[in-house]
Amino acid sequence: MTKLSSRDEALQIIETFDALPTKRKIEIFRDLSPEAREELVEIASRPWEIVRAVSEEELYFTIKTLGQERAPALVAMTTGAQLRHLIDMDVWRHDVFTPKAASDWIEIIATIGEEKVLQLLQVADPELIVLILNCLVRVSVRNPDIDHLEEQDEFPWFTLDSIFFVEFLGAVPANLIKSFLGTLFQWNPEYYYTIIQQIVAGVDPATVERALKWAQARLADKGFPDFEEALEIYRPAKRETVIRGSRDSYYPDDETEERPEKLLVYPLAIPDIRTLFKRSLDLVDDADEKHRLSMELAHLANKVMIADVKDPGSTNELLSSIKKVSGYINIALEEITGSDLKQAVRIIRANHMEILFRRGYTLILELQTMARKFVRLSAGGVENLGYPLTSITKGLLSKRPVFIEAAASGPKAREFETLTDIETIRLLITRTTFEQNWVSL
User: Fold this and answer.
1) Which domain holds residue 242?
2) Exposed end of the chain (fewer CB within 10 Å): N or C?
């Protein structure tokens, strides 16, 4: 959103927006940048109707792009499912619970107020609440056989029942934790005692395992499989596995399923506008197809993050993974269509994006095979190839191949993006091999 020239102009635009049907407001919101979305929420009437209509993944992307310090206004309007997804994404790193992320979220939620705390308590797994509170407080129990007045000096001073005494560990301001515990106690005393007693007894591995299992089950529905399943995206694909498609071909996974209203936007917006893939995406105007493509790209990027052992909670890693996915798909499209835009549109309509990703990756694998043979024929191995071949070959032969560009400041690594990247290396290897063979004659 641009800065407005006058207060009257600002009020006129706000009034015009507020008069729009909710569906149109949501469409406008989706087309805005995260920063502009934040501004719109601040000025619109009934902004929660817009926020709650956004997909969980899209809202997470928006909040992480803005930074959590700017999150409370948006988080305050979330549904329970949206809130739970935000926490699922952030508190686990490679199957390990991260107290810092959990503390940050509890501080945000408690700052918003009692209603948001209640929402979290209602949708979160009890095991997760135990894990979160366990890193924020230490709980002591009064000995019932000793007069309370005699031992009160031995305990931290905060208690809700004169039985369990809470000491704050400092990760979150004490007043916010008091408010959180007070809300929990008033809402459901029995649940409060269950949580507190588990903290007193000590969190066992089974509790952590159950909390992780519930989170993994939910995230699996968002395209975050386990590591072994994620590696399937790097399985080679032959050219003939790609369906060429007819002019009207479109094969959804379930033709009877209605398209959800919560369309994902960011996966379709991130690919480079100059590529064949992005230009073909922009020509798809059917809403069902756009939804299918967006979901497949998002899930592919999630699989890449798992397979490449990246941080799914990092916006930078997410953006990088989508760019990688887009680059590999673009390479496959260029190989099959010869950069024919109309044919590229037919192919993305007829194929699952994972097939195209795997085909693009296969072309890089074939180049790797050429490079290994080239290195075997070269005296002294990779290190003696000279600049820029040494850097280029090392990048190609790494576990997850990257393209090395020559730059004034030195070699720069990036993902493979076009068929030209592959052809450039192939020509370098072929020419160098020819020159070596010519010299040896």
Assistant:
1) 227-360
2) C
Q: What's the CA gap between 27 and 14, in Å, rounded? A: 16
Mean pLDDT of 51-67: 90
**Comparing 88-92, 187-191, 248-252, which segment has the lowest mean pLDDT?**
248-252
Average pLDDT over residues 324-348: 96
Q: What average pLDDT does range 320-345 have in this prediction? A: 96
Domain count, the chain: 3
Which structure tokens are listed for 47? 């902004």
Cβ-in-10-Å burial (0-12, 13-18, 19+) of 342 comes to exposed
Contacts for 251 with CB less than 8 Å, ≥ 6 apart: 350
**Cα–Cα distance measured from residue 257 to residue 275, given in angstroms and rounded to the nearest whole number:** 31
Please determine, for residue 288, whether its predicted confidence score (pLDDT) is greater than 80: yes
* Residue 51, both tokens: 């926020």
* Spatial separation of the C-alpha atoms in residues 412 and 395, rounded to whole Å: 10
Q: Is residue 19 part of a domain?
A: no
Query: What pLDDT shows up at residue 39?
Result: 86
Asked if residue 388 has a cis previous peptide bond (ω within 30° of 0), the answer is yes
pTM, two decimals, is 0.82
CA dist 327 and 305 (Å) reads 15
Q: How far apart are CA 118 and CA 183, in angstroms?
A: 7
The continuous run of DSSP H or E covering 318 comes out as: helix 315-337
- Does residue 149 lie within any of the structural domains? no
